[in-house]
Amino acid sequence: MKIAVIGAGLTGLSAAEKLKNGAEVTVFEKTGRAGGLAATIEHRGFRHDYTGHFLHFKDQDVKNRILSLFDDGSLLEIERKSYIYSHGCYVPYPFQAHTHYLPEEVRRECLVGFLENLKSEDAGVPGSFYDWMNSQYGQGIVKYFMLPYNRKMWAVHP
Ligand SMILES: Cc1cc2nc3c(=O)[nH]c(=O)nc-3n(C[C@H](O)[C@H](O)[C@H](O)COP(=O)(O)OP(=O)(O)OC[C@H]3O[C@@H](n4cnc5c(N)ncnc54)[C@H](O)[C@@H]3O)c2cc1C
After folding, report:
1. Site residues for ligand 1, CB cut-off 6 Å
2. What is the share, in percent, of the chain residues with pLDDT greater than 90?
């Protein structure tokens, strides 16, 4: 069987790797270099990452699969210790699962927004990333984390 995979980002490369047994897989990539958003480019002796290079594993099988691909020791395994500094508190990631670290009034706003959101009618397909965040997390979590975080990350209003 012949299989064409369009795009050599993480998704395309993972699909190609998975499908290659017993099939002739060809990956087509328009930029001429693999990696997509997760690529690193070298320029004048400096290495630049397009995005973060952290793989977060929930599934042990997936983790083992990835580790088996990097038997040259180039994959660094680190325990995740990341926090959001908010209202004088260090809140562990993910923010929405750790609102109990926050002052009571902020925590209340996050929880009430989340619960009100659960009760609200499905508004259909969100028109923007901002709408989607509100539909997923409610207004409090968006106000205190999702909005400032994503505005900083993308440098535009979501
Ligand atoms: C700032 C930032 C930080 C991030 N940090 C992390 C992180 O720490 N950990 C993590 O797991 N994820 C992180 N992500 C997300 C992660 O980078 C992406 O989810 C992942 O790289 C997407 O891979 P993909 O293959 O789906 O898409 P892409 O990486 O976008 O790959 C798509 C590929 O398809 C090619 N292509 C498109 N159209 C065509 C065409 N017509 N013909 C041929 N080729 C085509 C593109 O050139 C590209 O190479 C981050 C993302 C961003 C933006």
Report:
1. 6-12, 28-31, 36-38, 51-52, 54-55, 153
2. 68
